[in-house]
Design a protein that fits this description.
It is built from 4 helices and 15 strands. The chain has 255 residues and is α+β, with helices and mostly antiparallel strands. It has a single domain, classed as Creatine Amidinohydrolase (Alpha-Beta Complex). It has a 5-stranded antiparallel β-sheet. Strands 1, 2, 4 and 5 form a 4-stranded antiparallel β-sheet that branches. A hairpin with a 6-residue loop joins strand 7 and strand 8. It is globular, with a radius of gyration of 17 Å. Magnesium ion binds next to loops.
């Protein structure tokens, strides 16, 4: 079932989204050569706690039977696509780091990911970051009442592929609200399903994962970290958005 949110509920989700973006504002400053992903996780935990919110990823059960997720944020570096575990890794000049943040405030979820450059990065890496963000924007623009989920998927996929990159197929975006993962699923590529029709008051986490090489991915032995099968770079961009009569509204945006 797809839940429809009232304006009041959208306002509550926006407040949860603001906590997510407060974390991202800080991450944008802290992601520099020499910092560990553990330190990023520590700061994120502090910001979320001070806001009176709950980190939604911490303790999330592993679908592959591994340990519950041990971090407050997911930190995925270079060839890591999503679900990287924060730890002792020291970021190096030229890396790219995707940070995914999820919080619950007053029972409502916010979820957003950004991929940050670490110091100076290659031209190709910079292009991957821009195209990933643009593909999110293309998908979001298609999220209007009357369109289908497949219109969102098609817009993302087109933008990625016309730039010579590939879109991950094994993981998808999702509805979001009082649960982190609600219906519908939002693939970033066009499959057989048209998907449901979009309507005012739906809230969606649209999250393209874009690979510089092939779209295939593997999961590491930690049963969490998803990596590109060919070792090429990958980037991730995600926002929680609302479908409204006036067009899509981002609930995780403060800049
Ligand atoms: Mg998500």
């Amino acid at each position: 079932m797809i839940t429809i949110k009232s304006q009041r509920e959208l306002d509550l989700m926006k407040r949860a989204g603001e906590v997510v973006m407060r974390v991202h504002l800080r991450m944008r400053e802290l992601v520099v050569p020499g910092v560990t992903t553990f330190e990023l996780n520590r700061v994120a935990a502090e910001i979320i706690r001070q806001a009176g919110a709950i980190p939604s990823f911490l303790g999330f059960p592993c679908s592959m039977g591994g340990i519950d997720f041990p971090g407050v944020i997911c930190t995925s570096c270079n060839e890591e696509v999503i679900h990287g575990l924060p730890g002792s890794r020291v970021l190096q000049e030229g890396d790219i780091l995707s940070v995914d943040v999820g919080t619950i405030l007053n029972g409502w979820h916010g979820d957003a990911a950004r991929t940050y450059p670490v110091g100076r990065i290659s031209g190709e890496a910079a292009r991957l970051l821009s195209v990933t963000e643009e593909s999110f924007n293309s998908g979001m623009e298609a999220a209007v009442p009357g369109n289908r989920i497949r219109d969102v998927s098609a817009a993302v996929q087109r933008r990625v592929e016309e730039n010579g990159f590939s879109i991950v197929r094994d993981f998808v975006g999702h509805g979001i609200g009082t649960e982190m993962h609600e219906e519908p699923q939002i693939p970033n590529y066009v499959g057989r399903e048209r998907g449901p029709r979009l309507a005012e008051g739906m809230t969606l986490a649209i999250e393209p994962m874009v690979n510089a090489g092939i779209w295939k991915v593997n999961v590491l032995s930690d049963k969490w970290t998803v990596v590109t099968a060919d070792g090429a770079l990958s980037a991730h961009h995600e926002n929680t958005i609302a479908v409204t009569a006036r067009g899509p509204v981002i609930l995780t945006q403060i800049w």
